[in-house]
Task: structure prediction
Amino acid sequence: MESIDVLGCRIDAIDRQGAVARVAELARGVPGSLVVTVGVEMVMYARHDAAFRAIVNGAALNLCDTIGLLIASRVRRGPLRGRVTGVELTADLAARSAEQRDIRLYLLGGRGDTAARAGRVLQGRFPGAIVCGARDGFFAESESDAVAAAIAASGANTLYVGMGSPKQERWFARYGAATGCGVGLGVGGSLDVLAGNVARAPRVVQRLGLEWAYRLAREPRRWRRQLALPRFVLAVVREIATGAGTRRPTV
Result:
């Protein structure tokens, strides 16, 4: 599998079908493998947080979640050919769970019953999908051991962690092995989308790569977070100008 380095973060070149197959493989393996759905904000955060950057680059699989990373690859004639978003992947894995019964899901994140409702939506869309349990993502650090133990007891082998980045990746990096899940996926706000708390952009907006603008229009308070995008563009231009950033094979 090829990958590209974007501002110090590894992004793997893999399509949705390949990502589902790889996650299923990890689910059957040793507990604790992390899959990161990488976005521009995460890359910019990782530039200034070495510990978080190490978690991302040490993940089993890093997916291109946002259009900015895809464009950065195309400008450099890199290997990325499309996005694999968290929302799409959560649904694709539920579909595989229903068909092949090798994915057993646990949903962790959101407020109140968001994760539980998201699980019911997936089971409704994909009858037979195995959802072993769900709980909210608002708990004290002191409760983490108990949360991980409960996930392990559920029999799940695939964990959706929807706590927002970088919290979700940090939490799984520390407690993933204790959950008993072969793989954990940082899915950000995907549980809110599935549960109906947040509307996803229309398909035409998704195809144009303007989901960020749609979210900003609906949630103007996000404007500070969107400042990461122009900073990202400038940083990528500088990286290209200096010849940094490489295309590389990964195991």
About this structure: The mean pLDDT is 90. DSSP finds 13 helices and nine strands in the chain. Residues 2-242 form one domain. The longest strand covers residues 33-38.
